[in-house]
C-alpha cells in the first residue's frame, strides 16, 4: 500500500497469520478468553493466538449455561471485540452449530470474517446444543453436518478469505469413535481445514484420531476436569495434535478470585486487593498508552498527566 508516496507494509490479516502459524509451528497454544479484559491479559502475556470460548461467552455476556442460549449476534459481537484488540493476533472463535441451515452457516462465516475472526469451529450437534463436556448431547445426521461445513467453505471462498474452517464432531459420546472419524473425514473432504474431536477420553483415542486424519491438523480442546485427561501442549504435540485450546483458563481463576474477594467484602468490608493493582495499572493493561499516543498525534494533551 502506498500513502503520500510512501510505501506502508500492512500487517497480515489474522486468518492469514494463523495459516502461517499452522505451517510453521509444531503446536499452537490458544488460551481461552471470555471478555476484553481476559483477552488483554493473554495478549500481555504474549500468546500467538487466542480462543473465544462459547461457554465463557454464555457465562460472561449472558449469565447463562452453555445450552444454546447465545445467538449469532451475541457471538459475533463478542468475537469482534476480542479479535480487534490486536488484529495481528489470530482469534479462534466458537461458532456452535452455525446457527441454522446452509444459508445461516454462510451468514455466520461472513459475519465472523468481517469481524476479524481468524478461525471458527462448527459442530454437528442439534440446534439446541450443549457444552461438549456435558452428557445428553445429540448430533445431526452426517449429511447435515457435511452440508454445514460445505456451506462454510463455500462462503469463505466467495469472500476470498483465509478464514480457517474447523470441523468439530461431538459424535464420540453419542455414536462412538468410528462414527466420529467418519464424520471428520467427510468434513475434511468437504473442505474443512482442521479437525476437532470433542471429548477425547484417552491417549489412545488421541493418537488414533491424529493418525487417521493426517495430514489434516487436529485440535485438542483441553477442558480441565472434563471428559479429557489433562495434557500439556508438549504432551498434546507428542500425541499428534497441532492446536490446543484452554477454554477454562481464565474462567476458573476468575471465579475463584472474584468469589473470594466478594466473600471477604461481605464478611469484613474489605477487598484485600493487592496494593499494586492501581487504577492506572488497570487502564495501562487495557490500552491507556495507545490512547495517549493517538491523542498526542492528533495534537491533544488530554492524557499527558495520567
UniProtKB/TrEMBL annotation:
Record's catalysed reaction(s): (2S,3R)-3-hydroxybutane-1,2,3-tricarboxylate = pyruvate + succinate
CDD domains according to UniProt: ICL_PEPM (cd00377)
Cross-referenced InterPro entries: ICL/PEPM, Isocitrate_lyase_ph_CS, Pyrv/PenolPyrv_kinase-like_dom, Pyrv_kinase-like_dom_sf
GO molecular function: methylisocitrate lyase activity
Pfam families linked to this entry: PEP_mutase (PF13714)
Family: Belongs to the isocitrate lyase/PEP mutase superfamily.
UniProt-recorded name of the protein: Putative Oxaloacetase-like protein
Amino acid at each position: 500500500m502506498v500513502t503520500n508516496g510512501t510505501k506502508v507494509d500492512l500487517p497480515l490479516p489474522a486468518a492469514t497469520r494463523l495459516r502461517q502459524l499452522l505451517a510453521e509451528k509444531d503446536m499452537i497454544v490458544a488460551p481461552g478468553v471470555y471478555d476484553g479484559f481476559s483477552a488483554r491479559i493473554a495478549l500481555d502475556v504474549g500468546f500467538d493466538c487466542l480462543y473465544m470460548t462459547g461457554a465463557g461467552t454464555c457465562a460472561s455476556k449472558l449469565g447463562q449455561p452453555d445450552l444454546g442460549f447465545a445467538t449469532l449476534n451475541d457471538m459475533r459481537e463478542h468475537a469482534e471485540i476480542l479479535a480487534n484488540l490486536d488484529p495481528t493476533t489470530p482469534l479462534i472463535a466458537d461458532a456452535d452449530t452455525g446457527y441454522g441451515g446452509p444459508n445461516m452457516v454462510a451468514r455466520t462465516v461472513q459475519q465472523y470474517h468481517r469481524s476479524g475472526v481468524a478461525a471458527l469451529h462448527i459442530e454437528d450437534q442439534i440446534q439446541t446444543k450443549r457444552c461438549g463436556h456435558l452428557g445428553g448431547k445429540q448430533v445431526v445426521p452426517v449429511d447435515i453436518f457435511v452440508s454445514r461445513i460445505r456451506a462454510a467453505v463455500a462462503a469463505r471462498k466467495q469472500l476470498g478469505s483465509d478464514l480457517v474452517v474447523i470441523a468439530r464432531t461431538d459424535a464420540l459420546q453419542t455414536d462412538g469413535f468410528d462414527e466420529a472419524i467418519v464424520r471428520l473425514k467427510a468434513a475434511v473432504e468437504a473442505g474443512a481445514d482442521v479437525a476437532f474431536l470433542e471429548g477425547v477420553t484417552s491417549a489412545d483415542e488421541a493418537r488414533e484420531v491424529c493418525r487417521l486424519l493426517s495430514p489434516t491438523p487436529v485440535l485438542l480442546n483441553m477442558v480441565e476436569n472434563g471428559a479429557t485427561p489433562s495434557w500439556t501442549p508438549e504432551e498434546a504435540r507428542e500425541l499428534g495434535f497441532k492446536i490446543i485450546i484452554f477454554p477454562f483458563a481464565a474462567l476458573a481463576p476468575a471465579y475463584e478470585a472474584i468469589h473470594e474477594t466478594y466473600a471477604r467484602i461481605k464478611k469484613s468490608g474489605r477487598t484485600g486487593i493487592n496494593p499494586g493493582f492501581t487504577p492506572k495499572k488497570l487502564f495501562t493493561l487495557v490500552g491507556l498508552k495507545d490512547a495517549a499516543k493517538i491523542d498526542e498525534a492528533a495534537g491533544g494533551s488530554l492524557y499527558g498527566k495520567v
